[in-house]
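Pipeline run #58 for the internal structure catalog. This entry was flagged by the ingest filter as a single-chain record with no existing model, so it goes straight to prediction. Upstream metadata was stripped on purpose; only the residue string is passed forward. Reviewer on rotation: M.T. Logging verbosity set to normal.
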Amino acid sequence: MPAFDASSMLHAWDNYPERQFPPLWNWIARGIAARHITIPRVACDEVAHKAPECADWLRHRNIEEYEVTNGITHHAVRIKGLLGIVGDNYHPKGVGENDLIIVATALVHGVELVSEEQRQINPPQVAAKRKIPLVCAMADVAVPCCSFIEYLKRSNEIFG
């Protein structure tokens, strides 16, 4: 069961419009109803900020939104420390506070994270410049992470 980052849900919404890809969105709706597709609350709030109609669609289908808990906050702070981020000095090319909460949410709930964040082939010398997929891949984090298209391909679903 994956948790979607805002970037992946927005990617799907923008690139596969419901009007043109109804079988895909029916499949996503079934995944939401079966609790096979979830989203951290902070990610859904990001979706609502950028594409309110997408967030309305998700919430109308009762997507499970993971709330921020003390355990999630604890792991987010721990990951922040692993990246060498002090205070609110997030690097503009790396993860932000919400990103850390999203990764920590996937960690705490033991789910894969679906994210469109840039894949960094070579880790940057400054750890704070890491994007979500590279943060997920850190040995002390170890959260499975894939893109929307990878998730879609693995499903073996046929949309006809």
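catalog note: The chain has a mean pLDDT of 96.
catalog note: Residues 2-155 form a domain with the Rossmann fold fold (CATH 3.40.50.1010).
status: ready for reviewer M.T.
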